[in-house]
Design goal:
This protein has helices spanning about 10-25, 40-55, 70-75, 90-100, 110-125, 130-140, and strands spanning about 1-5, 30, 60-65, 80-85, 100-105. By secondary structure, the protein is α/β, with parallel strands linked by helices. The chain has a single domain, classed as Sugar-phosphate isomerase, RpiB/LacA/LacB (Ribose 5-phosphate Isomerase B, Chain: A, 3-Layer(aba) Sandwich), CATH 3.40.1400. The longest helix is centred in the first third of the chain and has 14 residues, at about 10-25.
Length: about 140
């Protein structure tokens, strides 16, 4: 299960990503926002991150206007490694090297086709389990 949520600035892109998840057969839980009315991104990031931490969701995707605020909020929660990605390579690298458990996107600065590519790269890339990356992740967690 994938947790997904956006504020108003990420709503349109979230709709595109939901279509992709449906098309590819991914189960998901939508944590809101449910329209383009103003909503504060911390009110979305926290429940998605909590669902990832408690195992309700395997991973999370959060979207705000730039992806910055919502990723900062998610990363305030111990155990979350949320990567703001704007390209395919970053999505692959953050999964392989950082074992990121959440993805952040910018709804106002990432086009839908690029975002879909990023999402698929993030969802289909496995952590490398390389000793040096594990060591670094442990330092982050400490």
């Amino acid at each position: 299960m994938i947790g997904i949520g956006s504020d108003h600035g990420g709503y349109a892109l979230k709709q595109e990503i939901l279509g992709l998840l449906k098309e590819k057969g991914y189960a998901y839980k939508d944590f809101g926002g449910y329209d383009e009315n103003a909503i504060d991104y911390p009110d979305i990031a926290r429940p998605v991150a909590q669902a990832v931490l408690d195992g309700t969701c395997e991973t999370g995707i959060v979207i705000c206007g730039t992806g910055i605020g919502i990723s900062i909020t998610a990363n305030k929660i111990k155990g979350i490694r949320c990567a703001l990605c704007s390209d395919h390579f970053s999505a692959v690298a953050t999964r392989e090297h950082n074992n990121a458990n959440m993805l952040a996107l910018g709804g106002r600065n990432t086009g839908p086709e690029v975002a879909k590519d990023i999402v698929m790269a993030f969802l289909t890339t496995e952590f490398s389990n390389d000793e040096r990356h594990i060591r670094r992740i442990n330092k982050i967690e400490d």
